[in-house]
Specification:
Elements lengths: L2 H15 L6 H11 L17 H14 L8 H13 L2 H12 L5 E4 L15 E5 L2 E8 L10 E7 L10 E7 L5 E6 L8 E12 L3 E2 L5 H14 L44 H14 L6 H19 L6 H23 L15 H12 L6 H12 L25
Parallel strand pairs: 1-4
Antiparallel strand pairs: 2-3, 3-7, 4-5, 5-8, 6-7
Bound molecules: flavin-adenine dinucleotide (FAD).
Flavin-adenine dinucleotide binds next to β1 and α11.
Length: 410
Amino acid sequence: MTPEDAYRDALAWFRSNWNPQLPLRDWWQLLADSGWGFPAWPEAFFGKGLDAAGGKAVARARREVGAFGGPQGIATMMVGPTLMEVGTPAQQQRYLPAIANGSEIWCQLFSEPGAGSDLAGVQTRAVRDGDEWIVNGQKVWTSGGHYARWAILVARTDSDVPKHAGLSFFLIDMDQPGVEVRPLRQMTGTAEFNEVFLTDARVRHDNLVGELGGGWGVALRLLGHERDSLDADADVSGIQGDLDLGAPAGSFVGGGTNPGADDGTGPFALTQGQGAMDLVTELLADADRTGDAVARQWAASVATQVRLARYNAGSLPASAGKLAATHLLREVRDVSLRLLGPGGTLTGPDAARDGLVAEMALFSPGLSIAGGTDEIQRNILGERDLGLPPEPRVDKHVPFRELNQPGGRD
Ligand SMILES: Cc1cc2nc3c(=O)[nH]c(=O)nc-3n(C[C@H](O)[C@H](O)[C@H](O)COP(=O)(O)OP(=O)(O)OC[C@H]3O[C@@H](n4cnc5c(N)ncnc54)[C@H](O)[C@@H]3O)c2cc1C
């Protein structure tokens, strides 16, 4: 199906089916059952089997109708697509329906105080105990950990092999006594991140994803999906928070009255795709500078980047798409603050866009770090896409136990 066909079919479907009175729970179920919530997913798994350009065309049709999007977040961006590729049929059957209809929220237990860019250095250990694994360690920067029901976990299951070979990938229940979640406050004022302490937490063996010791490969696959979902034309409406699923779906649209959802007007949505173009155009008009040649160039640059991202959908390496998104975010921040002047630093309901511009400016460094820093994306592009010589990695063939780091030696 061409993107034009997808756009036309989606427009017809959203026009006949969008009902703002439906409880969010029912609307999301309808999106999952129809395949229009995640059109780029396979038809066997709540999708329509469209390519990335087709998926973006559907998102445009949905926005045109003003319908609220499907649940977005770690579950749909990363966990779902990874389970579709490498999950067992039992895992797919158990977890995918609740991911597609947004009834179960997921978080990502990857980063640790000593393992971020060097993710393969994680110290959290999982030790087999019959049909279960017992997990001990500390994770950090866990977005949404305070409301997640499930988590994806990378843990060390073998310290006698080199660090990449001794990792396994698990699905862990957050709702158990061994999991303690402590919020971390960010400079935006909100506390989206957490530290997560795992003390004799338990994971059933059938929640191992991929091979035992094959966690690095599964994690790389998942991180590729994360980068894929973060391009400069990302569809960021409908982001999942701790939502009241019984509230009318229409109450989440256009700023909404329900906390927890980002319906495409939150700080992140303002920086990508249509949201970025709308924000800059609106601020240009508010500042009475639509006739100012210099300011118009700023807006044109933002629009060009979004259109290029749309044009390149699915054809760029994921790292290049993510770098384009971080670049666009910084540019939208700078243009917005230039147009608003000192008013751009204000927060609260009297400020422009209810203070979202200031929040976006404070959030902006985060996207250059989340999902792998800009430097790491450039390393990936250099090594995997340009074929440049790899960085020296002196610990690559050394058993993890022998590495000189805390927890590396027993
Ligand atoms: C908004 C946001 C959300 C996040 N959500 C989650 C989450 O839900 N779950 C989760 O597990 N983690 C999450 N993270 C953590 C994120 O994945 C890590 O912060 C990131 O991978 C960087 O790791 P680090 O903070 O340990 O920095 P470090 O790895 O210590 O890096 C420090 C600096 O050194 C540079 N650097 C490191 N290695 C190299 C290298 N080889 N070459 C060149 N430069 C290098 C980095 O680019 C960076 O500038 C989130 C982070 C942010 C900002």
